[in-house]
Amino acid sequence: MDVDECADSSTCSNFGNTTCNNSPGSYSCDCIDNYKPIQNEIACEDIDECTDLSVPAGRRCDTLTTNCVNMPGIYDCPCKDGYQTITGNEFKCRDIDECKTEALIEQNCGINMTCTNSPGSFICECEFSGHEVDETALPKICKDINECHIPDSCPEYSSCTNFDQSYSCSCDDGFSGGDCTGDDCRFHFCEDIDECAEQLCDESMECENLIGSHSCFCRVGLIEEMNKCLDINECLEDNSCPEHSSCLNAEASFSCTCDKGFYENTCEGLKAYECADSSTCSNFRNTTCNNSPGSYSCDCIDNYKPIQNEIACEDIDECTDLSVPAGRRCDTLTTNCVNMPGIYDCPCKDGYQTITGNEFKCRDIDECKTEALIEQNCGINMTCTNSPGSFICECEFSGHEVDETALPKICKDINECHIPDSCPEYSSCTNFDQSYSCSCDDGFSGGDCTGDDCRFHFCEDIR
After folding, report:
1. Which regions form coiled coils (predicted)?
2. CATH number of 326-393+403-410
3. What is the C-alpha to C-alpha distance for residues 123 and 116, in angstroms, rounded to an integer?
4. What kind of fold does domain 233-315 have according to CATH?
5. Top-level CATH class of 5-46?
6. CA 46 to CA 35: how far, in whole Å?
7. How many angstroms separate the CA atoms of 329 and 334, rounded?
């Protein structure tokens, strides 16, 4: 008779997580449910059903909708947030449609919001522009977007005012052109007002335009009193001129003339008389005589330069000479440089206008900026497109072309009968407003047509 070794509870007690199974003439210590043998040991360890690929696919937790939780000898598949259990299926969950009913929408999204369901979640969007969702509230609510906290909502040199659903920008004092509301503000700029052009300073004072402001000041040699500039008579002050000289007062300045026989400026010691003679440098073109103690030099006058290997000077062509500082060169894109003896000018090219305070560069004239300018340049029934230094007029109706000789430009009918191959061979062309027609000559047929359709017609001989 077989001995049941498993009747003794200590038979497999030395081997962890096992159970004793009797067999005829023998027995075995097998792993309990949800445990597996430990390699090279007579013992068992827990099966981690969350990672062990030996678990049948139908009994694994669905990774998209559940969070797998392993425990000694067992495991669980609780639903992820936004999912709910499926009756009869402990391994998978289904999405909760938070947007399914009005009650759920108001519970999750609140009023004045639209709800869009997504796997495991939902999205609330505000119905009114200028609002954003407050994700911290439950139910979520729509709160006004403070565009004034968003960088570059308003142009530079302006102040931002937020209000429900939108905002406004107002140019700072000393600026204009940028007052606007909402998204339109992205296309506005606050430009500095040239207060000097408005003659805000007294005529006796100099005006300097500043960014957002201006300054009224007196020239050297004048003193300010009651917002006016008065001349200072420097000749009444001690030591205005050196010894051996006479003082001559002038508005905002004075001059000292050395007595005969004394050097200029210092009026000390006897001077050389070379420059006193007007003929001293007369043989050297475009020079001026500069006296120095015991000598003199014939130097180039302003805006002239020495001619190599000659004691003479030639005009500096500021339009081509690269020695002219970059900031004082005429802008080649917007101006035409005109050189003249001793001077040069940067007149604006056609389609450009001067920039206050900048004599070397011009800015584009937007001929399409206002309705009055459009009608002046393009005329009626035309669209105007601005381009750098120019503009383009296009007719709004088909069958017309722009008459570039008229001012303002006008749309004139295109006479298609003057265009080769407008009508098929053996036909006559008749032009009319916006189109034309073709009629087959006597003895031909099949080519009568109107407009662009005539390209596909042919006049065939009637047999």
Report:
1. none
2. 2.10.25
3. 5
4. Laminin (2.10.25)
5. mainly beta
6. 4
7. 12
